[in-house]
Every structure is written in C-alpha cells, then in structure tokens.
Amino acid sequence: MAVLGFGAAAWQSAPRDEWIGWSRKQRQRNLSAVLNNARFLILPWVRVAHLASTLLALAARTLPAHWQARDGYRALLLETFVEAERCSGTCYQAANWVCIGATQGRGKRGDHRLGQVPVKTVWLYPLVADSRARLWR
Length: 137
Description:
The structure is a single chain. By secondary structure, the protein is of the alpha+beta class. The chain has one domain (2-136): Aminopeptidase (3-Layer(aba) Sandwich), CATH 3.40.630. Helix content is 34%, strand content 26%. It is built from five helices and five strands. It has a five-stranded mixed sheet, with helices on both faces. Helix 3 (51-71) links the parallel strand 2 (34-42) and strand 3 (77-83).
C-alpha cells in the first residue's frame, strides 16, 4: 500500500538550521536527533481517504521509540523535502508538519551553482514541545 523511509538528516539545510538557530558546533553535536523522511510513496491505485496524513501521524507517534530502541537515543525532530514543482505538501500540512521555507536547488553536495536540482520546500515536525531548545544546546 505505502512505503515510508526515514534516515539521517541532511547535513546542511539553511531553512532548518535557521529555524533551530544553532551554530555549526551545535549542529555537529545534535544533528543525529533529526530524522529525515527520505521516502514516502503511496501506490497510485490505492484510494483511501486521509491515508497519507494518517501514516505520517502514525510514524511521528511510533518512530521515536523505535529509533531509541535501535540506536539508543530519541529523535527530536523530523524533516522532509518536497519538490515544489511536483507536489504542494498537502499531506504533510494535514499531519501538522510545518513548512519553514525552500531550498536553493544546490543538492546534497552544496554545489555553488544554484538550480542544479529542483527547489524543494522544507517541512518539519517537532517530536517534543521543546525540540528547538534541545537541539540548540
């Protein structure tokens, strides 16, 4: 029916880093507490009302405990990147994720030439009320 994949956060993301307000040193120390929703696919023939937002909400509720059991620490923040020209991120909005800005189209390697990859909107979901403060420490 659907596939969700989470993994390591993007090393740098200007909108996320500005939202948190952390320094380079803080990012190096705390980045592991940010998880990236790298894959989300619902097969095109599956038609279930509110399935996408329901799955995202379920993942946000269950993922932190699974991550802690497997890796020994609790995630504080989820992030994802939605290709702006293809999708609006409606399911993330419906699941209470927050759109905080857009990338510049530099890609994973941070190439100095803009526009090499599509611009993506950056969506965050705090897993705890004070996630920003905890990541800033």
